[in-house]
Design brief:
mainly alpha; 9 helices; 0% strand
Length: 306
């Protein structure tokens, strides 16, 4: 490779990095403001952001399904996903309280959506296999909307132990630790990445980047626990941070690889073009989607297990 080509490649990487940095700063600025403001403003901002992520994520998912030449009920899936997240938000926020738990509410909505998809397919002729039409549509709602619901559950998490716990700070902890996995993988992978992880799925992923993901996430978890563990994270200990950091790092990498499989199957480079330098909405939240249930289960089963 000539010196001119090398300079051009370096400049291209620098431009991509700057775009990613600007997009991330703007997004994180909005998120941090929403999480740390508190009160009604915080609730409205978090709910609005999650709803936006949900709509854009579903549209991108069904676009990838279509790009793969597979059938789906796009608008029924979108309506079902928006209903699931909206009703869950209203219930968890207390604005409209249902006489059932959040989990029962989710099960009811998902069950009704499944019945609607199956019933709708009966009257659609000619059409591809019901296994394909219903399966692809329902998977989009589960992957995007249902997993996003766990982020709402983290934000609105309530503990009866009386521990000093702030759902906004906990969600901030979750986002920062997860995104530090992305940053660590990108930084170390770009600097010293040599050994490919799964080139058939994601040629850019390296084992060195994977190690960077674990290091950055663990460091971020330990730092935030040191600052807020006792008074805003329910007494989360340093030992918990040392374990939770690598768990979220591994989950973040797996979440990114799962979306890479979706994109590779669909023959697209990015899930969309919503953000400059990042790609689509799913490119931004893939690691968060995979990690949200893990973080919620940690809160329920380990931090507050009484």
């Amino acid at each position: 490779m000539s010196s001119t080509d090398q300079a051009s490649q370096s400049e291209s990487k620098a431009v991509v990095f700057v775009r990613r940095l600007i997009s991330s700063i703007v997004l994180l600025g909005v998120v941090f403001y929403g999480l740390l403001t508190g009160g009604t403003i915080s609730v409205v901002l978090v709910g609005g952001v999650i709803l936006l992520l949900n709509i854009a994520g579903l549209l991108e998912f069904y676009s990838m399904v279509n790009a793969n030449g597979l059938p789906r009920f796009k608008w029924l899936g979108l309506a079902g996903g928006v209903t699931l997240v909206s009703v869950l938000f209203l219930h968890l926020s207390g604005w409209v309280k249902a006489p059932v738990s959040a989990t029962e509410l989710e099960i009811c909505i998902l069950a009704m959506l499944l019945l609607l998809l199956l019933g709708w397919r009966v009257f659609v002729h000619p059409a591809p296999s019901a296994f394909q039409m219903v399966g692809h549509t329902f998977l989009g709602v589960l992957y995007v909307s249902w997993l996003l619901g766990f982020i709402l559950k983290i934000f609105f998490f309530h503990t009866t132990k009386g521990a000093a716990f702030d759902g906004g700070v906990c969600l901030l902890f979750f986002i920062v630790v997860t995104k530090c996995s992305d940053i660590g993988a990108y930084v170390l992978g770009s600097l010293i990445g040599r050994n490919k992880m799964i080139p058939a799925v994601s040629p850019a992923k390296t084992w060195q980047g994977f190690a960077g993901a674990i290091m950055f996430s663990t460091g971020a978890a330990m730092g935030m626990v040191h600052l807020w563990g006792d008074d805003q994270l329910g007494g989360m200990s340093l030992a918990h941070a040392v374990v939770l950091g690598p768990v979220l790092a591994v989950g973040g990498v797996l979440g990114d690889l799962v979306e890479s499989v979706f994109k590779r199957d669909s023959g697209v480079k990015d899930s969309g073009s919503f953000f400059p330098g990042i790609g689509g909405m799913l490119d931004l939240i893939d690691s968060l989607l995979f990690n949200a249930p893990l973080m919620y289960l940690y809160l329920r089963l380990f931090l507050f297990n009484d």
